[in-house]
Each structure stands twice: as structure tokens, then as C-alpha cells.
Amino acid sequence: MTDDTDLEQMFAAARTQRDHLPDALSARMLADAVQVQAEVLAPEPAARVGLWSQLRAGLGGWSGLSGLATACAAGVWIGLAPPDFLPDPVGLVYQQELEVDLIFGVDETGILTEDG
């Protein structure tokens, strides 16, 4: 039992003897705690949303953009190589022969082949 009484005496001595922090250290710890609390409680700034993100969200996300890209590719394909039952718009625009008289009746090939 002497061991228990010695142990109790040591605990009682430890309870009565208190170590005190220096005032400067205590003040720095409290100032640091206030700063950390202010950082934690401060609202985070709202993230700025870019133009492409807004456009993607407006069109329905990636699935909407992929559908739009597919429809665009199909439209270009059908426009450049239409089925047989549709008229060819490229042929209608670019395969028409048109003569423009730039030099009022003079043959341009004759001007280019003349010597002199």
C-alpha cells in the first residue's frame, strides 16, 4: 500500500504545482487562434464562370454539345454530298458557266498570246 500512497502524494503535488505559460506566448497563441478562426469562417469568393462553361451549360452539357456537333457534321455531309433525290447545292452554285466580258469584246487569250 505504500506504493499507492506515494503515487497519490505525487499526483497531489502535481495538482497543486501549476506551470504557467509566459504572457507573450499566450498572447501569440490567442492571436493565431483568432486569425485561423477568421480564415475558416470567412466566405470563399465565388468562382468566376467562363464563357465556354456558360455556353456548355446553356446547351445542355456535354451531351447537348455532342448532339449539336453530330447534327452539324451531318448537315455539312448532306450539303456537300446530297442523296440522289436532292439537288446538289454545290453544283448549282459553282458549275454554272458564266461569261463575263471584261475588255469589251476582245478575246483575252489573244492578248496573252500576242508577241510584243
Note the topology:
Layout: H1 2-16, H2 23-41, H3 51-58, H4 61-80, H5 89-94, H6 108-113
Structural commentary:
By secondary structure, this protein is mostly helical. It has helices at about 1-15, 25-40, 50-60, 60-80, 90-95, 110-115. The longest helix has 20 residues, at about 60-80. The chain is rod-shaped and about 130 Å long. The mean pLDDT is about 80.
Helix-strand pattern: HHHHHH
User: How would you classify the helix and strand content by structural class?
Assistant: mainly alpha
Main sheet specs: none
User: What is the typical, i.e. mean, pLDDT?
Assistant: 81
Give the amount of beta strand, in percent: under 5%
| Spans of at least 5 consecutive residues with low confidence | none
Percent helix: 55-70%
The CA-CA distance between the termini, in Å, is 135 Å
Describe the structure in brief.
The chain has 116 residues and is mostly helical.
Features:
single chain; mainly alpha; 64% helix; 6 helices; 116 residues; rod-shaped
